[in-house]
Write a structure and sequence with these properties.
Arc Repressor Mutant, subunit A; 191 residues; 13% strand; 7 helices; two-stranded antiparallel ribbon; alpha+beta
């Protein structure tokens, strides 16, 4: 057995940055220093590009260029910004559900299905897919989201019920007709 060589730690690659952009000479050292300092403050790539463009309107950049430079410098993504991003997405999903009058913890797909059932009455999965623009998989289910299939989640929560089974879908499967439970109401006051 031979001993494996220890891996050399790679130095951040700082050569080869684009120095001419759209016929203009780019101030690379200033940009590198700016990206390093803003990254140390916890800014994300998009915000760093925004701040650079405000400060240097003659030498604009994009978040993609900033991300490439950040990677070449060996800097990681700022996790704080990632957490802020996911938190803002969660709040947007909650606002969407509440604005449509449904519980805040439902996903946008579930809200779409509930809106269709509320507006059009009892429907089968293919009819729901047609009204909402969602797709059916090969087993005839609406999309799978975090937590399971949309209709399974809504049934488990007690919001939707199966009324009865009707004809087939051409693949020898009986179609279930889904409807909102009579006890379910929309609440538009945000509670």
């Amino acid at each position: 057995m031979t001993a494996s060589k220890p891996k050399r730690k790679r130095k951040p690659y700082t050569k080869g940055f684009c120095t001419v952009v759209a016929g203009r000479k780019r101030d690379v050292p200033a940009m590198l220093a700016f990206i390093k300092s803003r990254h140390a403050e916890g800014e994300c790539d998009f915000r760093i590009a925004q701040l650079w463009n405000e400060k240097n309107p003659h030498d604009t950049t994009t978040r993609f260029y900033v991300a490439g430079v950040r990677k070449k410098l060996g800097l990681r993504k700022n996790s704080r910004n990632w957490k802020m991003h996911t938190e803002s997405r969660r709040k947007a999903r909650m606002r969407f559900a509440v604005s449509h009058g449904w519980p805040a913890d439902l996903s946008p797909r579930c809200v779409q299905v509930l809106d269709a059932l509320y507006e059009h009455g009892p429907m089968t999965k293919p009819q729901i897919a047609e009204k909402t623009g969602l797709w059916l998989n090969s087993q005839g289910n609406l999309p799978r989201i975090k937590g399971g299939f949309v209709m399974d989640i809504l049934q488990h929560r007690g919001i939707v019920q199966v009324l009865h089974k009707c004809g087939t879908d051409g693949k020898r499967r009986r179609l279930k007709v889904f409807a909102l439970r009579s006890s379910v109401t929309r609440n538009f006051d945000g509670n």
